[in-house]
Amino acid sequence: MAAVGSNPLSITPGASTAANYNPPYMILVFPPLMSLVFLKVAQRFNYSNISELQVKKILRFGLPAILISIILVLSNVLSSFHANAYIIGIGLVAASLWPALRFQKIYTKNLDAETATPQILRDITEARKSGLGPEKCIIRACKRKDYRTFNVIANTISNKLEWGIPMNNIFDSLYSEVKNFQVLVSFRILFEIITSGGGNVNTLDSLADTSEKIYDIEKNKREMLKPYIMVGFMLITITGFTTLLTIDSFASVNQQSRPGSEPLSSGYVEQTRSFFDIISMSVIVQAWLAGLFIGKITKGAFSGGFLFSIVLVIITMVSVDMIQLHVINIGAIMKNSTPPNLSMSFKESYRRLYRIF
User: Fold this and answer.
1) Which domain does 115 fall in, by range?
2) CATH code, domain carrying 185
3) What is the residue-averaged pLDDT of the chain?
4) Quick check: 52 and 302 in contact, CB under 8 A?
5) Structurally, how many domains does the chain consist of?
6) When you count CB atoms within 10 A of the terminal residue's CB, does the N or C end of the chain come out lower?
7) Cα dihedral angle (210, 122, 180, 160), rounded to 10 degrees?
8) Residue 268 lies inside a defined structural domain of this protein
């Protein structure tokens, strides 16, 4: 659709620039619309222990940047510089910064909590085997300093137990900090065991074994999903780059196929650039939505895809810049690949072939 259905490439060069040119808005809308459909389908594929960020907060930080970029594009303030695609890309990146950083912080904390929970339960079990009291076992296990971002929460549990705060209140504080379901279930069972009389060693040992098995399952699941990140990056990069390169290539083909190589009219060049800008905006929006899709598949939450969206949008903007600056010039390649004239001398033919290779 981008290559064959583009109106600028079907207009005869040198024709009147007064001819009506209607940009193919369907191409601008169709890919993002299909991405939204797949996002809705992916919503039922994978579930996360971490809840999504609140939509209100995402809109509060991201909507101004998107509105500013849309206003700049619709007002054609920078249309003469053909910077609409970059405006949309910068707006999407700015809108994605806060949710990306916020979710990454929450995600890291929950992963560290998931890693630390089996260690804490195992330490409690071993300390209980040595005859230490149940509450002292928890205090001792939570005072370790190798839980990364979970250190603060674990140390808070230890301090509250030393001050005699009830375990239900401690669990409520833990629930407000961590949203990982497996972590919350493990600590809830632990506190219930301690509250009901301390529990024997076998009960605590079974709880520690179960927590370790759940952690191994979740870890293997994340490791198996990591290749999908590279697959998504590869597909979006190749698709965006080749789509834009195809449009630029058709313009070069049209120029090289004309006899005499007359210069293209300014109206034709401007229409071709406008069409390229429209497709560039569509590809950038497509890359942003693809990042959300990758986040949902790999992390279980659309909020986890904002970081991928930022990276994909930047890669797509670099692709647009490379093609606009003709880093890969199809016209030059085609010009140099013209076969030598048979009437030329052998020496001249050899020189031209040498330049080609």
Assistant:
1) 110-217
2) 1.20.81
3) 80
4) yes
5) 2
6) C
7) 140
8) yes
